[in-house]
C-alpha cells in the first residue's frame, strides 16, 4: 500500500493574521487535511479555525505529541500516513520539529518510508539570526540554558569561549518569564567586546531586534523583554 505524506506545517509565532506569515499553499494544505499531530491540540485547533472553513472541525482528528509522549506511542500517531492518508504535523508556535518534540515523528516517518514535506513558514531562530548581523555562516542552536544561576553562567562562559574559537554565533531561548535573568547573566558574564542580539516578538506588532556589544548593553536599561517570546544570540 502506498503511504501518505507527512506535511510539516508552520504556524504563526503569535497573534498575527495567518495571511501575513504563511503562503497560500501552506494554508491550503492545512485546510484539506483531516489528520494532524500537534504539540497542543487546543492551539492547533485554534490555528485551523483561523483558516477559511473547508470542513467542520468535528471531522478533523488531532492527536498530541509533546515532551511527555512515550516513544511507543509514535507508531499510532503515524498510523494515518501508513494507511495511505496525508498527515499534518503542527508545533505550538513556529516550525514543527525544530526545538520541538515533533522531530521524533519525522524520524519515524523516514524509518517507515513516509515522505516528509517541509513547508514554508516563520522560524524565530532563523529570523533572529537573519536580523542579528552576527555570523550566518557558522552558528549553533542550544535550546535552553541551565536554570540555576551558577550553572547558567558556566554554560555562557563555555558558549562564549567556543564562539571565539570557532567564530560561531550561539543561539538560545528561554521561558519568557526568565528572560531578564538570562539577559542579566549575559551582560554580567560575557566579555565587553562580545556582541549580544536580543530578538523579541518576531513577526508581531511589538517586534524588537537589537544587537550591541556587552559594553554598550551595560550602559543601557534592560530591554523590555519580560514575558515576551525572545531569542538570544551571542558572538565573541
Automatic annotation (TrEMBL):
- Where the record annotates domain Tetrapyrrole methylase, the positions are 41-216
What's a GO biological-process term for it?
A: methylation
What protein is this chain from? Ribosomal RNA small subunit methyltransferase I
Q: Which domain of life does the UniProt lineage start with?
A: Bacteria
Any one Pfam family here would be TP_methylase
Alphabetized UniProt keyword annotations: Cytoplasm, Methyltransferase, rRNA processing, S-adenosyl-L-methionine, Transferase
Q: Which GO terms describe its molecular function?
A: methyltransferase activity
Q: What is its EC number?
A: 2.1.1.198
Please state the gene responsible for encoding this protein: rsmI_2
Q: Does the keyword Transferase apply?
A: yes
Xref: SUPFAM superfamilies: Tetrapyrrole methylase (SSF53790)
